[in-house]
UniProtKB/TrEMBL annotation:
Sequence positions that bind 3-methyl-2-oxobutanoate: D55, S56, D94, K124
EC number: 2.1.2.11
Protein name per the record: 3-methyl-2-oxobutanoate hydroxymethyltransferase
Lineage: Bacteria, Bacillati, Actinomycetota, Actinomycetes, Micrococcales
Family to which the UniProt record says this protein belongs: Belongs to the PanB family.
Entry keyword set: Cytoplasm, Magnesium, Metal-binding, Pantothenate biosynthesis, Transferase
Top-level taxon of origin: Bacteria
Catalytic activity: (6R)-5,10-methylene-5,6,7,8-tetrahydrofolate + 3-methyl-2-oxobutanoate + H2O = 2-dehydropantoate + (6S)-5,6,7,8-tetrahydrofolate
Role according to the record: Catalyzes the reversible reaction in which hydroxymethyl group from 5,10-methylenetetrahydrofolate is transferred onto alpha-ketoisovalerate to form ketopantoate.
Organism: Nesterenkonia cremea
Length: 274
């Protein structure tokens, strides 16, 4: 039997060049955060093209108030786990706050650890045009890089909290930052919390694929934090998040049933005993 067109056009291993081809062909791709082998395997099997080992692990896995405290050693554990669970997806790791900003050399050294010790395929860094030399140095060292512009969570204190970036006159800065990252060799640019019309300009302006989060539908790819997307968290979710399931309720009900059966002596039953 011959392969269908869909099979032919679906690579057995997603690489950076495929994302570039997707943009050129007008195709889109999906990206999700993941921090462990089991969810990585599920998302990979579901066809998600890019898995992000986000520094959001600080919030959703470690209970921290922001992404700032997570260390390279901590994030490396999550990154190794994801690489172990992924078969086809491109695995990208965030570089933690304070591990790449000081110099291009620092950026290369940290990125090398993620490539070498965890086996990720690319890294992501937050910043603006000032980060171009750091990106250039990493790319020269053979490390694929995604640049992250717009709202950059590691800079939340400097940006005055979680606010939409790139409105009005500030739109030009977002475009300039993204262009500088592309020119430095970034294979993709992620934009967070910018107006949809600015994202459309950004995607049209860049040859490399764009990734959006809270940035409208014009981007080549979209990314969400998986616990937000599947309703695992409590409290308010950001406006840009669509909840595709309510796992928190499912898990709470299941765990409550388990506990009740244990208290009543109904579990384990004969079928669960030797």
């Amino acid at each position: 039997m011959g392969m269908s067109d869909a099979q032919k056009s679906t690579p057995t291993r997603i690489r950076t060049l495929h994302l570039r081809q997707f943009k050129e062909q007008g195709r889109r791709f999906a990206m999700l955060t993941t921090y462990d082998a089991m969810t990585a395997g599920i998302f990979d099997e579901a066809g998600v093209e890019v898995l992000l080992v986000g520094d959001s692990a600080a919030n959703v896995m470690m209970g921290r108030e922001s992404t700032l405290p997570i260390t390279t050693d901590e994030l490396l554990v999550f990154a190794k786990s994801v690489v172990a669970g992924a078969r086809r997806a491109l695995v990208v790791a965030d570089l933690p706050f304070g591990t790449y900003e000081a110099s291009p050399q620092q950026a290369v050294e940290t990125a090398v650890r993620f490539m070498k010790e965890a086996g990720v395929h690319a890294v992501k860094v937050e910043g603006d045009a000032e980060l171009a030399p750091h990106i250039r140095a990493m790319v020269s060292a053979g490390i694929p890089v995604i640049g992250h512009v717009g709202f950059t969570p590691q800079s939340e204190h400097a940006l005055g909290g979680y606010r939409v970036q790139g409105r009005g006159d500030a739109a030009q800065k977002v475009l300039t930052d993204a262009r500088a990252m592309e020119e430095a060799g970034a294979f993709a640019v992620l934009a967070e919390m910018i107006p949809a019309d600015v994202m459309a300009l950004l995607d049209a302006d860049l040859k490399v694929p764009t990734i959006g989060i809270g940035a409208g539908a014009a981007a080549t790819g979209q990314v969400l934090v998986w616990q937000d997307m599947l309703g695992l968290g409590e409290g308010r979710t950001p406006r840009f998040v669509k909840r595709y399931a309510d796992l928190r309720q499912v898990m709470t009900e299941a765990v409550s049933s388990y506990r009740q059966e244990v208290l009543e002596g109904a579990f384990p039953g004969e079928e669960h005993s030797f």
